[in-house]
């Protein structure tokens, strides 16, 4: 595994030829599969679906389909049912393969009594979590209060992260040993006390943890040019207050860096996304995504080529604007109670994690040309037990799916695959969905809008009255003004997208439409068939004179939309 989290394919001496289908009259084409510096020629048919190409890569290379992302000509080949030809891939083209590596770590556990077994745990979990799992799943194996976990003679504190331990193992497996806790019992004996150490092996080596020594770099007094790192929120308009939760996020992230904790690059995703730790180094606190490491940006760490025309991986987006879109999704995710109040409720209706624009300098980011300050989105790290990609949607509460659908429709999200919805459990034991990765929201065309939830059963259920009230309270003009206030002067075409999608959502609920019905209007059925919303926009474009005002254009869109939706 390379440090970039991408598995390298060694260049093959002979061509990797994938057999054309038998009895097929179509001529195969040869394309080049590029990955981590190596290139493998593969033979495909124009009519092959993207899914089938991925399946063949899976069978030849072992990367499961859901972990593969294919990019050709600056565009993600995202639709599984579309064909190689649909995406305009032709003979000699280069297809970039980005493989998402699992964040799961194999753990082997042994106990003093000789029991042994192996299981997997998310690398972002800590030892305390592993203990609980052992106690819960393997009854009798461990009593949380009575036993310690050891790794190579070192006692592991409950807060210790699994990925931290995995750095030191060579064979890809962490070997843990469960042993009885050493206890000190104090028993009164007449006027004295007897001190007993109750431990099976009192001579265990307990290593001194040097990370406990405080490291102060005097960041407030050392001039910036002499500092090893810095982190500030980017505040364009001094009048635009940041919510307290956002300030706390910056502070905790800063403390983590100050203590010397290195940002850890996620093995998932097509861009650079870095997990940042808190001051005590015990948990992740935030995720920093620098704009120069976005897919097809100059310092992208996943080997994707530079964008030739500045367009991002999804149609209608721009490379380098992902961070603004991430922040916009948070700012526009208004709480149910009304607009976000800066000292009060910070959680929005759809639960977008608190996100701000930040500038950060640290050697731990990808700096092929020397360490420089980076601008990017800083988002609160949300504890989770995986993403919607890891499980069937059946158990998700309807309201949870609906809250994501409202966000995606409003924002015309062009990247809502199930991997971008994290899953956790609320206090009531029900699944809670957390939407992340909003770098492709508010595109200036609807072409790439895709919503994985469209095919989930909950999408066919009607919105609740609470959700309908929320949708009725939305106001695109107010939203555009809010983004403007925070410093993002939304380009005209993107503002138009927000106006049209908000209009569709509102008109949809007025007519009692479900998220499925509204979402289907926004998404293409297949790559080459325009969506209903695209047809509406096209018709409106044809109707109005080029010099017409935005208001006149929106009036026309409204009339056409009413006609298409029916009364
Ligand atoms: N707020 C968050 N809390 C917890 N984990 C997160 C958060 N944001 C991102 N992640 C994790 O980091 C990984 C990479 O982040 P993200 O998906 O945003 O990156 P990306 O490069 O934009 O991905 P994509 O290729 O899906 O567009 C995610 O798969 C997720 O596991």
UniProtKB/TrEMBL annotation:
Residues 260-552 form the PI3K/PI4K catalytic domain. The keyword Nucleotide-binding applies. It holds the Pfam family PI3_PI4_kinase. InterPro entries: Kinase-like_dom_sf, P4KG1-8, PI3/4_kinase_cat_dom, Ubiquitin-like_dom, Ubiquitin-like_domsf. Its EC number is 2.7.1.67. Signal peptide: none annotated. Residues 29-100, 105-173 form the Ubiquitin-like domain. Belongs to the PI3/PI4-kinase family. Type II PI4K subfamily. SUPFAM superfamilies: Protein kinase-like (PK-like) (SSF56112), Ubiquitin-like (SSF54236). It comes from Lactuca sativa. It comes from the Eukaryota. This is 1-phosphatidylinositol 4-kinase. GO terms for molecular function: 1-phosphatidylinositol 4-kinase activity; ATP binding. Keywords: ATP-binding, Kinase, Nucleotide-binding, Transferase.
